[in-house]
Design brief:
Blueprint (H helix, E strand, L loop, with lengths): L2 H23 L9 H19 L5 H24 L1 H8 L2 E6 L2 E2 L1 H7 L3 H10 L8 E7 L5 E5 L21
């Protein structure tokens, strides 16, 4: 078979395989991807490129490796949902980086986060200084920073105090 025709056929095959596998693995918005999800996507893309353009490699060997990788990704997704210890091992967990206005440098070192990085993220959340913050928590898997400014009520589910006047009555 001519090389051009084989390349076209491999490209079509790789496109269909990647399309089906992407639907099987699931979808998340780009901003919600964990580092593992990103790396897995790059690996799948690399295998897909090899499947499409690797004219000197066996199509079925690459296809088998791609299928094994996707099955492991799907299995990992289910196991992580069911097992909290495994979820913490694979995805990490939230890490407090500011507590009672004080930067927790030990946690920042573990995350490889500099003071400048933290200050930039705090400013993106409203220009707070650490002294103005009750707590700041960084999600290891997504990199999202959540903050609780000082003076804000902790329990938002409490009912408001009883008021003698009802709405509409004077």
């Amino acid at each position: 078979m001519p090389v051009i025709m084989e390349g076209v056929m491999r490209g079509v095959f790789a496109f269909i395989v990647l399309l089906v596998l992407a639907r099987l693995v699931g979808k998340q918005s780009f901003s919600q991807l964990t580092f593992f999800d990103f790396i897995s996507g790059v690996a799948i893309g690399g295998m897909g490129a090899l499947l499409a353009a690797g004219l000197t490699v066996n199509v079925w060997g690459i296809f088998a490796a791609l299928m094994a990788f996707v099955v492991l990704m799907i299995l990992n997704g289910y196991l992580v949902l069911e097992s909290r210890p495994l979820r913490k091992l694979v995805r990490g967990g939230p890490v407090v980086v500011v507590h009672n206005g004080r930067m927790l440098r030990e946690n920042m070192v573990r995350l490889r986060m500099s003071e400048d990085d933290l200050m930039t993220r705090l400013q993106e959340k409203g220009g707070f200084e650490p002294d103005d913050i009750e707590a700041a928590v960084l999600e290891e898997d997504s990199g999202q920073l959540s903050i609780l400014p000082r003076g804000r009520e902790r329990n938002n589910t409490t009912k408001p105090e009883h008021n003698d006047t009802e709405p509409g009555k004077a």
